[in-house]
Amino acid sequence: MPPQIILASASPRRSELLRQIGIRHLIQAVDLDESPWPGEAALDYVQRVAAEKSAACWHASPQKLPVLGADTSVICDGEILGKPENQAHAQALLSRLSGRSHQVYSAVSVRGDKGHGLALSISQVQFRALSQAEILAYSLSGEPEGKAGAYAIQGLASVFIESLTGSFSGVMGLPLFETAELLAQQGIKVIA
Ligand SMILES: Cc1cn([C@H]2C[C@H](O)[C@@H](COP(=O)(O)OP(=O)(O)OP(=O)(O)O)O2)c(=O)[nH]c1=O
């Protein structure tokens, strides 16, 4: 069966989530400067970066398949936490999240012959208090690497999460409700 879309992302989580809903895709990751602009609000930032990822791939792509780009950011006290640079940074990020709630913003952008669609998913995640031993062990597990906020809801960190309001798939990197709506705009149906 031929691919239905191009996924403009190096994230294995996004590919896994697309597979979960049966969307056949090629992977063509794009390399962008993902730094926030000075004074840029987090809500604007995630949407801009998702749109830039799909645009870069769409303009470079010879196959005229719809292109999907996404961006996921963890926001604590209005600040974008980003991915950990090393284990010490991962521990610092986890200490910030311990015993409190934060937001996860996930934006999806789909471009195709039928135009451009952009959607945003906002989730609220409550972490229980983490001990120093847990923060250390988790940072050594390798799981924080490459993950916004230094944790993976789909992994071991699930035991830190007291509650989630919003979208599990959105926190993991690709909100599937919004994704299905954007794909439908391009004539791609997930179910019937
Ligand atoms: C919060 C959270 C994030 N993540 C991941 C999803 C994304 O891969 C990553 C956020 O970084 P992104 O910059 O959104 O994506 P990426 O760099 O992995 O891939 P690309 O830019 O090529 O699209 O964090 C999880 O896997 N689980 C989680 O619980």
TrEMBL record:
Catalytic residues as annotated in Swiss-Prot or TrEMBL: 71 (proton acceptor)
Listed EC numbers: 3.6.1.9
Coiled-coil regions listed: none
Molecular-function GO term, any one: nucleoside triphosphate diphosphatase activity
Chain positions of site Important for substrate specificity: 13, 72, 154
UniProt subcellular location: Cytoplasm
Known role: Nucleoside triphosphate pyrophosphatase that hydrolyzes dTTP and UTP. May have a dual role in cell division arrest and in preventing the incorporation of modified nucleotides into cellular nucleic acids.
The protein's name in its UniProt record: dTTP/UTP pyrophosphatase
